[in-house]
Design goal:
Layout: E1 2-8, E2 11-16, H1 40-53, E3 59-64, H2 88-97, E4 102-106, E5 109-111, H3 113-120, E6 123-127, E7 131-133, H4 147-155, H5 157-166, E8 170-171, H6 172-178, E9 183-185, H7 189-200, H8 221-236, H9 241-254, H10 257-272, H11 276-289, E10 312-315, H12 319-330, E11 335-338, H13 342-362, H14 367-370, E12 378-381, E13 392-395, H15 401-414, E14 420-423, H16 430-434, E15 443-448, E16 457-462, H17 468-480, E17 484-488, H18 496-513, H19 517-527, H20 533-540, H21 542-551, E18 567-568, E19 571-572, H22 576-582, H23 609-621, H24 631-651, H25 658-668, H26 678-685, H27 687-700, H28 711-718
Parallel strand pairs: 2-3, 3-4, 4-6, 5-7, 6-9, 10-11, 10-13, 11-12, 13-14, 14-15, 16-17
Antiparallel strand pairs: 1-2, 7-8, 15-16, 18-19
The structure holds ligand L434P2JQ.
Length: about 750
């Protein structure tokens, strides 16, 4: 767990060892068969005491095994019921108190508790490629090993606030500028640290003990912190951790070190028991779990190998295509971008160049690193012939099956036989698209989310004949583009949009019954969603859904004469969105939608009195009695119908576990991470409660099938509502209570 050795005559080297990331475990696992004799923390403490007791040791270096310092505390430990605690804070103090100089040799990563260990050291040397940070806030915590007290003393309050409240990982070069590390080296970091430790022998350490330093003053500290708190609260949307991080830093500015540490502990414990930390830690592991994909036919990440993508193409330079090209260029994959004519091509090229300029500015090394002016890296064309040598094509044209089929049939003819053909459809049938190609095994859905160069989610949809190699290649490409790939099966809307459908439908039904768009949005945004359904619809454009509903024959010229206005195929239907579209209200792009905007293309949504009176007239025309709908009903009807669909998706094998649905929602649909995703949220509300509410609403609205409880949900409740991790193992079990 930590190795003690002599690095040079007088320098002891303590190497943290706990693969793969040298997490600082503090649990003594006592179950038979998996019994560790020593935790990492215990070993670190023992190493320090041994070095202290050995008169021949004059200095110490702390480093990590396999080129990684440490990723911090073992996150699994925070929710383990079997704790035999050994605090990290006291060990960091022990390091700092050492009379022998201690140098941290930071390679790879020093995160969370790992960086806190380094902050206890008297000097820090980092390899140029190392990254550092205090990402506890991203798992619902704060740095609980005195990091909130030491970091401001070292780098000042503004930089400490930024690092601790965002949790961002910074490169060694930035750490050097901030004063977080003393030196950055390109050579062997441990050797450099041992050399430095040797030089430091006998030098006074007092000035290097951060707990003894004052926090650098700011002329307007109080105002600065209040402003920071207000900003953080606004950004956090109900997540507690960022706010408590600010409070801990504030304590550092107001109280002596020891009192600040006590405050930090108090705040840490609030977070640890808040429920939000549990949700965010679940989300951390869920994201990693979905990388290990499997399909019902037995294909899996274990046996499938990705093929290299040396050159890619994107067809269609609309909003999605532009973002996809940008993502590929950022991932340093040469791209050919194709449009149907020169006019569209030039428009697309200008837009892509603008996006890339902006991205280059945001990146560390600037435009040079992206090299997008080099035609070998990014080429624009109107001729399909340029696609002959690409390894993978992503089609991102208009959502129309006939058009997509025409394109895929051309691609199948032109592209080399081993090329993969991907579609960015958000709902259409992958098998139907694949059917026009001579290589259905190499056809796959890659559903990006807008803006595609920003959003992390990539839904990867396999068809009936998609090969495991194709899935593995798409997943690998997602990783290279720094996206979270989630492998799902083929059905209308896949996972994300399919679950969104009953949610949006309920939102519109609520308007029919008495709510206003801003009531529904507010309730859901207060819950923590980044954006409510009506603001979202205005942003995306109401015409998108209108077109799809026309294609499905739900509205427009193909609707059978005599169809009742509020019924389709025997079930409840709301024509409200269609009526708005007929009036040219497409949302932000037309300056009017569910809200009004300052101008076409405006972004500030204002409740619209026209919409309010339109809704009143609509209710009168359809003899609907307006009623007051409270926040609870808004949340339950929208969220529980979405969750209900999730249970159906699981039962059908469209996703292999609830964590897939949660990762999709957190990364693609603005679901608040501190609520863990919709399925995790359902487990916290309690499956019997969700079932009871769905039953209640379904009885009130028998004409809405989406409110009828899923058979899988009923089964889980009948089986005693097992833990979320066990849901899938109950899918095929018999229940005698049903
Ligand atoms: C009453 C109880 C009181 C307890 C008191 C405790 C004392 C409190 C004092 C200190 C508290 C400190 C807080 C912390 O340190 S919290 C941890 C902060 N660190 C992080 O958030 C880092 C998380 N990890 C990452 O960001 C990445 O994993 C990274 C290290 C950058 C590596 O990324 P990558 O190369 O892409 O690899 P993976 O992400 O796939 O990770 C590889 C496997 O390692 C597992 N992992 C990573 N980090 C941790 C961790 N901190 N704890 C446990 N496991 C970790 C990850 O799950 C992967 O494993 P697998 O493939 O099996 O899922």
């Amino acid at each position: 767990m930590a190795q003690y050795a002599r690095g040079a005559a007088a320098v002891a080297v303590i190497r943290l060892r706990n693969p793969p990331v040298n997490a600082l475990s503090w649990l003594l696992v006592t179950e038979p068969l998996i019994s560790f004799s020593l935790t990492v923390l215990q070993a670190l403490e023992d190493g320090l005491k041994r070095a202290d007791a050995d008169p021949s040791v004059k200095a110490v270096t702390i480093c990590g095994e396999n080129g990684k310092f440490s990723a911090g505390a073992d996150i699994r430990g925070f929710s383990s019921p079997r704790k035999q605690g050994l605090g990290l804070g006291p060990i960091v103090s022990l390091i700092e108190r050492s009379e022998k100089p201690v140098v941290a040799a930071i390679e790879g990563i020093a995160l969370g508790g790992g960086l806190e260990v380094a902050l206890g050291c008297h000097y820090r040397i980092a390899h140029v490629q190392a990254r550092m940070g205090l990402p506890e806030v991203t798992i619902g915590l704060l740095p609980g090993a005195q990091g909130t007290q030491r970091l401001p003393r070292l780098v000042g309050v503004p930089a400490a606030l930024d690092l601790i409240t965002t949790g961002r990982h910074i490169p060694a070069t930035e750490a050097l500028k901030l004063g977080l590390v003393d030196e950055v080296v390109e050579e062997n970091t441990v050797e450099a640290a041992i050399r430095l430790a040797n030089k430091l022998i006998g030098q006074p350490l007092g000035p290097r003990r951060l707990s003894l330093k004052p926090v650098p003053k700011l002329p307007n500290m109080e105002a600065f912190l209040s402003e920071a708190l207000a900003k953080v609260k606004k950004r956090a949307q109900g997540c507690l951790a960022p706010e408590l991080c600010v409070q801990a830093i504030k304590a550092a500015t107001e109280q002596p070190f020891a009192d600040g540490v006590r405050k930090e502990q108090e705040l840490f414990n609030i977070l640890l028991t808040s429920g939000q930390a549990k949700a965010m830690q679940y989300a951390f592991f869920a994201e990693r779990a979905v990388e290990k994909w499997t399909t019902p036919s037995g294909a899996s990440w274990k046996s499938a190998s990705p093929q290299p993508i040396r050159k890619a193409a994107v067809i269609g330079l609309g909003t999605m295509g532009r973002g996809i090209v940008t993502s590929l260029v950022k991932a340093k994959i040469p791209v050919v971008a194709l449009e149907q004519n020169l006019e569209y091509l030039n428009m697309g090229r200008n837009a892509v160049m603008l996006l890339l300029e902006r991205e280059a500015m945001k990146m560390e090394q600037g435009a040079q690193a992206l090299d997008f002016h080099n035609p070998a890296r990014l080429q624009f064309a109107v001729d399909f012939d340029v696609l002959r040598d690409v390894d993978l094509v992503i089609e991102a044209v208009f959502e129309n099956m006939a058009l997509k089929k025409e394109i895929f049939s051309n691609l199948s003819r032109i592209c080399k036989p081993e090329a993969f053909l991907c579609t960015n459809t958000s709902a259409l049938n992958i098998d139907e698209i694949a059917s026009v190609t001579g290589r259905p095994q190499q056809v796959i859905g890659m559903h990006f989310f807008s803006p595609a160069h920003v959003m992390r989610l990539l839904e990867i949809i396999y068809g009936r004949q998609t090969s495991p190699t194709t899935i593995a290649t798409a997943m690998q490409l997602a990783k290279v583009m720094k996206k979270v790939g989630v492998v799902v099966g083929n059905c209308f809307g896949f996972v994300g949009n399919r679950m969104m459908f009953p949610y949006s439908q309920q939102a519109v039904f609520l308007l029919e019954e008495g709510s206003r768009p801003e009531d529904v949005d507010q309730a859901l945004e207060d819950f923590g969603l980044k954006i409510g359904p009506f603001r979202m619809s205005d942003l995306a454009g109401l015409d998108v859904g209108w077109r799809s509903r026309k294609d499905q024959g739900l509205t427009g010229p193909s609707l059978a004469p005599g169809t009742p206005a509020r019924q389709r195929r025997g079930y409840r239907y709301s024509p409200l969105p269609d009526l708005l579209c007929e009036k040219g209200r497409f949302g932000q792009k037309t300056g009017k939608g569910w809200y009004e905007y300052e101008k076409a293309g405006g972004r500030t949504a204002k409740p619209d009195p026209w919409v309010h009176s339109f809704l009143c007239e609509y209710r009168n025309a359809h003899q609907i009695k307006t009623r007051f709908i409270d926040q609870e009903e808004i949340l339950e009807r929208c969220l529980y119908s979405l969750i209900n669909e999730g249970f159906d998706i699981l039962a059908e094998g469209i996703a292999s576990g609830p964590e897939h649905l949660d990762v999709v929602y957190i990364n693609g649909y603005g679901w608040p991470k501190h609520r863990g995703g919709p399925m995790f949220y359902a487990s916290t509300v309690g499956l019997p409660n969700i079932l009871a509410k769905l039953q209640k609403y379904s009885e009130i609205h028998p004409d809405i099938p989406q409110l009828r409880p899923s058979a899988f949900l009923k089964k889980l409740v009948a089986m005693g509502s097992p833990l979320l991790n066990d849901w899938m193992s109950h899918l095929h079990k018999q229940s005698n209570k049903l």
